[in-house]
């Protein structure tokens, strides 16, 4: 599983407009909707905001990874727009059960991060209920990649969505199997 394979310019926003945590999450969910990656915006948004209310996903160093996985309270399995992706549900590949969006906030967002610093780099991860191990692997992969100061700085300075994807692809190739 590579993050760069899950990202495309239509799910990367190099200049988030939102000024607060909930607005950023909403903006990233809307990217996934517009890109045809998911359906049922309100269900996804409710699941992500409920998860965020339990404990901040602002992990420090200017990074947040808001995420949600289908569960008994928030059944979001049906939101995956597999027909738009052209995926036969009988032959699902691992990453078809996870969608990712990325946003960058130039001004920084108060995400109640663990280090109390503003967040600039946000990965939104939405996973189906069938993908618990993939969900954890994706969270770990994002964390491992963004623990490097150099990569965070490259992403903050990238000129556009394609540059952000190129940086992630290059750095994944260098650092991860």
Detail the topology: elements first, then pairings:
Layout: H1 3-6, E1 12-13, H2 21-34, H3 41-54, E2 58-60, E3 63-64, E4 67-69, E5 98-109, E6 119-127, H4 132-146, H5 149-157, H6 161-175
Parallel strand pairs: 1-5, 3-6, 4-6
Antiparallel strand pairs: 2-3, 5-6
CATH topology: Mannitol-specific EII, Chain A
**Outline type:** globular
Number of strands: 6
Low-confidence stretches: 82-95
Determine the fraction of residues in helical runs and give it as a percent range. Answer: 40-55%
Order of helices and strands: HEHHEEEEEHHH
Cα separation of the termini: 9 Å
How would you characterize the overall build of this protein?
- α2 packs antiparallel against α3.
- The longest helix has 15 residues.
- The termini are close together.
- With 177 residues, the chain is of the alpha/beta class.
- The radius of gyration is 15 Å and the shape is globular.
- The chain is 40% helix and 18% strand.
Short summary:
By secondary structure, this protein is α/β, with parallel strands linked by helices. Helices cover 40% and strands 18% of the residues.
What tags apply to this protein structure?
single chain, 177 residues, alpha/beta, Mannitol-specific EII, Chain A, 6-stranded mixed sheet, 6 helices, globular
């Amino acid at each position: 599983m590579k993050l760069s394979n899950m990202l495309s310019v239509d799910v990367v926003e190099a200049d988030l407009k939102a000024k607060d945590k909930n607005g950023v999450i909403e903006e990233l969910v809307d990217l996934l909707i517009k890109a045809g990656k998911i359906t049922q915006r309100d269900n996804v948004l409710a699941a992500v905001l409920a998860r965020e209310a339990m404990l901040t996903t602002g992990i420090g160093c200017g990074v947040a990874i808001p995420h949600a996985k289908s569960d008994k309270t928030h059944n979001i399995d049906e939101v995956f727009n597999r027909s738009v992706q052209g995926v036969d549900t009988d032959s699902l590949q691992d990453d078809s059960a996870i969608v990712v969006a990325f946003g960058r906030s130039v001004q920084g967002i108060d995400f109640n991060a663990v280090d109390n610093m503003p967040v600039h780099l946000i990965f939104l991860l939405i996973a189906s209920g069938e993908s618990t191990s993939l969900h954890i692997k994706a969270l770990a992969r994002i964390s491992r990649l963004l623990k490097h100061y150099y990569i965070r700085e490259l992403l903050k300075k990238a000129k556009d969505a394609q540059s952000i994807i190129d940086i992630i692809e290059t750095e994944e190739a260098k650092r991860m199997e």
